[in-house]
Design goal:
Elements (H helix, E strand, L loop, with lengths): L1 E9 H7 L4 H18 L2 E6 L6 E4 L6 E4 L7 E10 L3 H10 L8 E7 L10 H12 L4
InterPro entries: Dimeric_a/b-barrel, YCII
Family: Belongs to the YciI family.
């Protein structure tokens, strides 16, 4: 099963990291990522630019685009890992080992759905399956 570990922090988290040596952060993240690679569970990992993005709000027609990243929440998404593990408990164990410390620093763990969970007779699912097969994703 695939799980996404979403790194979340607050303004307080960001402020706490201002004085941390970048090389120290890179070393601890590099060691953690290498550990997941050697365990065969890491599928993807990316950080997100700390500069504000935009939010597309679909609650009206047409959708409204505002400066983001998350106007109604105090938490910021900093990046993610996607792991292929046997269970949610295993994903939680990996998250506990992530080198994330400091005030407000959290990881949200969400299962990633698969194309097999959708109606296979749907035209769009068939097209997506073909694309995934052609690009080596299945």
């Amino acid at each position: 099963m695939k799980y996404m570990l979403i790194m979340r922090g607050t303004d307080e988290t960001v402020a706490a990291f201002q004085d941390v040596d970048v090389d120290e952060i890179m070393d601890s993240m590099g060691r953690f990522n290498d550990e997941m690679v050697r365990a065969g569970v890491l599928l993807a990992a990316e950080g997100l630019d700390p500069e504000p993005g935009v939010v597309v709000d679909y609650s009206s027609e047409p959708p409204v685009v505002t400066d983001g990243p998350y106007g109604e929440t105090k938490e910021l998404f900093g990046g993610f890992w996607i792991l292929d593990v046997a269970s949610r408990e295993e994903a939680v164990e990996w998250a506990k080992r992530a080198p994330m410390a400091g005030p407000g620093s959290k990881a949200e763990i969400r299962r990633v759905t698969t194309i097999d969970e959708f109606p296979q007779d749907n035209e769009w699912i068939r097209k997506e399956r073909e694309w995934r097969e052609a690009t080596g994703q299945l």
